[in-house]
Each structure stands twice: as structure tokens, then as C-alpha cells.
Design brief:
alpha/beta, Aspartate Aminotransferase, domain 1, Aspartate Aminotransferase, domain 2, 2 domains, seven-stranded mixed sheet, four-stranded antiparallel sheet, 13 helices, 13 strands, 13% strand, binds pyridoxal-5'-phosphate
């Protein structure tokens, strides 16, 4: 893949993924040959419409949804906004209470905060130390006013997989629409919206080796949802704007490729993850793997090193051509540990000592010893730099 041209090891697949060559090929074909407007009545437009609906059919099928339940959006963020705001508006006459968790992605959290300013009340559930939501807490939070529950399928920082089937069943027992952000799990875990009792589900193209700026939202056809983009009649009048057909066809190709190899690839990533975690914990003292031993996204390792600043470690690794992400910053440049880790009860120091390594298709077994060796060396370097600093500080105190 493109990212391996240099000697870079890319291990940050939870942030984004390299675009699969077949996706690029498909997008190029569509931009060249299928440039019509899918709303036009002439032949050029109709051929675009045919492709659009074929893509929709394939994507809907991948989660056991129907074609008329699948809406193209500009990505995970828009899908989350569409679901939350769209349901909140549709059901406002029934009540104004929403349940979510403290470990959600900002696309959900900041949208909930915006809804609070509009008169809704939101319960932000605690998560356990593994980052998981307890269905019992969801149940306890439900009131007669509750109109929406939104709990992510898996957390993007620590990789915690939530029991969304159980939460969905609970929501349905109380007739409450249930949304889940599945951006981190699509293509990795099996997703059947009927089985999981999900009414709305968000997916993003660029997290599954597809293009950026495209995604989809599944919406149960029996539920009302209010459009958040108004204009033309595209997407069954629910999301206006000429469809981005090249990106949609690229997304459909990415979905198809993800489905073909989902189980074997997840298995492969789990194996690599275990090798990596074993190597790091055996070779580096003061190392802790965070999250649930099993209920984590395949390939995602969130790991802390005592007396190490995670940000420094990420930068040192970057200079060696290894791309991982800091385990704690909510956004680059931020000095505070992320809201998610705080919700999991991490002490700021512990949170700041962590990095997130997310393996994906571009990684092979050969990468593992290289990663372990590089991390071992850089952890030692960061630790000794820290000790020197402390030493100097102490000396200063003595001399003062
Ligand atoms: C990346 C991500 C998003 C945002 O998706 P975009 O397509 O980048 O807008 C939302 N939720 C989760 C869990 C994510 O990991």
C-alpha cells in the first residue's frame, strides 16, 4: 500500500486508514465515466442513479438493513449529528431526555451539549475502568421523558466494546430509539442492525480504507427523523445535496473489501495485537495494557509506561518513522488528558503516560519486533531524560 513506500510503519489506523488501491480505481472510474447528476432524467443522469442505488443496496446488505434505510452523509461526524439532532427533533413532543455516555466521541458529546442549549436534558453515563457502559446504568437512567439513547459500539481511544445488543433490547422494551456510533467497529465486528436492536448506526469511509468525507447513517424505516440539511429531494428528502457519487462508489468498494475479509482480518489483527502486547510487557518494565482483556477492538492497544510522557514518546517514534498516537490527548496540542480516559477514572499522570497503537491492513508480522524494539528504546530515552530533569531540579534545590 501507498504508506509503505517509505520505511514508515503506520500503526494509527483508528485515526484514519490508507485508501485501498481498488477504491481509488473505482473512484477514478466514476469521476471519469459516471459524472452525471443522479437526479437528472436523461440517460447520463439515470446511469449515475443506477450506480448510486446499487451502492446503497450493497452497503445496506452489509448490516442487514434495507436500501431505504441507508443515507449517505459526509462521514462519521455528520452521521452522528443527523441521528441525534434528527431524532431529538422528531420526538420532542414525547419528551426531551437523552441518554449517552461520558466516553463517546466528540461528534456525539458536543452534539448533545448543543441539544442541551436547545432545551433537552442529557444524562452522561459513567463508564467502568475498561471504558464500557453498564446496561444496568442505562436502565436506571430511563425516564418517561427519554426519547433517545446513543451509546457507541466501541470506543476510539481504548477500544472498549460496549454490550450494544443488550442496550438495544432495553431501549426497544421501552420504545426508545437507539443510536450507535459504529465508526470503529464496522469491518471488524459483525454488525446486524436487527439482531442488535439498533435504530440508527453511523459509519465513516476513511476508517475502513475508503475515502474521507463520506459515510452513511442507517435509520430504521419505522422511525421518523428530521433532515438536518434541507434543499433538494436527494436521499428520500432526508439529506439534501447532489450525491458525491465518486466517494459513494469508493465507500461501497471499501465496504465490499471489508466484508470479504472481515473475520480473517480481525483474527489476524488480534494475533498481531497479542504478540505486540506480549513483547512490550515482557521487554519494558512498568508497562500496563489498558482496557478489557478481550472486549477490545482487534488490533487496538492502549498502553501506559510508568514515568513516560506519552506525547514525547509519540514524537520520538515519529522521528524513527513509526506513526502511533498519543493515548491521552483529546486533540493534538491539548495538554489535558482526554474526556474518555477521565471518564474511565484514569489519574491524569497515568493517562498521559499512554500511547495508542492501532494496527491495520498495512501491518505485517514483521512490524511487531520492529515496533517493540523501537518503543523499548524510546521509552528508555524518555525515562532517562525525565530522570536527568528531576536530578537537575533536585540539585538546584540543594544549591539554593
Ligand atoms: C473518526 C470517528 C468519528 C468521526 O468520523 P469522521 O468521518 O472523521 O467525521 C466519529 N466517531 C468515532 C468513534 C470515530 O472514531
Amino acid at each position: 500500500m501507498g504508506n509503505r513506500k517509505s520505511n514508515i510503519i503506520y500503526a494509527d489506523h483508528s485515526a484514519t486508514t490508507p485508501v485501498h488501491p481498488q477504491v481509488i480505481e473505482e473512484m477514478q472510474r466514476v469521476m471519469t465515466d459516471v459524472w452525471g447528476n443522479a437526479s437528472s432524467v436523461h440517460q447520463i443522469g439515470r446511469s449515475a442513479k443506477v450506480e448510486l442505488e446499487m451502492a446503497r443496496e450493497r452497503i445496506a446488505g452489509s448490516i442487514n438493513a434495507a436500501r431505504n434505510e441507508t443515507f449517505f452523509t459526509s462521514g462519521g461526524t455528520e452521521s452522528d449529528n443527523f441521528a441525534l439532532r434528527g431524532f431529538a427533533e422528531a420526538f420532542r413532543s414525547k419528551g426531551k431526555h437523552i441518554i449517552t455516555s461520558k466516553a463517546e466521541h466528540h461528534a456525539v458529546l458536543h452534539t448533545c451539549e448543543a441539544l442541551e442549549k436547545n432545551g433537552y436534558s442529557v444524562t452522561y453515563l459513567e463508564v467502568n475502568e475498561h471504558g464500557m457502559v453498564n446496561p444496568g446504568d442505562v436502565k436506571a437512567a430511563i425516564t418517561d421523558e427519554t426519547i433517545l439513547i446513543s451509546i457507541m459500539h466501541a470506543n476510539n481511544e481504548i477500544g472498549a466494546i460496549n454490550p450494544i445488543g443488550e442496550i438495544g433490547a432495553l431501549a426497544h422494551k421501552h420504545d426508545i430509539p437507539f443510536h450507535t456510533d459504529a465508526v470503529q467497529t464496522f469491518g471488524k465486528l459483525s454488525i446486524d442492525v436487527k439482531e442488535l436492536n439498533v435504530d440508527a448506526l453511523s459509519v465513516s469511509g476513511h476508517k475502513i480504507y475508503g475515502p474521507k468525507g463520506i459515510g452513511f447513517l442507517y435509520v430504521n424505516r419505522n422511525l421518523d427523523i428530521i433532515p438536518q440539511l434541507t434543499g433538494g429531494a436527494q436521499e428520500r428528502n432526508l439529506r439534501a445535496g447532489t450525491e458525491n457519487l465518486p466517494a459513494i462508489m469508493g465507500l461501497a468498494k471499501a465496504v465490499e473489501l471489508s466484508m470479504e475479509k472481515r473475520e480473517s482480518e480481525s483474527e489476524r489483527l488480534r494475533n498481531l495485537q497479542h504478540q505486540l502486547e506480549a513483547g512490550l510487557t515482557e521487554q519494558i518494565s512498568g508497562t500496563t495494557v489498558h482496557g478489557h482483556p478481550e472486549k477490545r477492538i482487534p488490533g487496538l492497544t492502549h498502553i501506559g509506561f510508568d514515568n513516560v510522557d506519552g506525547e514525547s514518546l509519540v514524537m520520538n517514534l515519529d522521528m524513527r518513522g513509526i506513526a502511533v498516537s498519543s493515548g491521552s490527548a483529546c486533540s493534538s496540542g491539548s495538554v489535558n488528558p482526554s474526556h474518555g480516559l477521565m471518564a474511565m477514572g484514569y489519574e491524569p499522570d497515568r493517562a498521559k503516560s499512554a500511547i495508542r497503537i492501532s494496527l491495520g491492513r498495512s501491518n505485517t508480522e514483521e512490524d511487531i519486533p520492529v515496533l517493540v524494539e523501537a518503543i523499548k528504546e524510546e521509552v528508555a530515552r524518555v525515562r532517562s531524560a525525565g530522570e536527568n530533569r528531576n536530578q537537575t531540579k533536585k540539585e538546584k534545590v540543594v544549591h539554593a
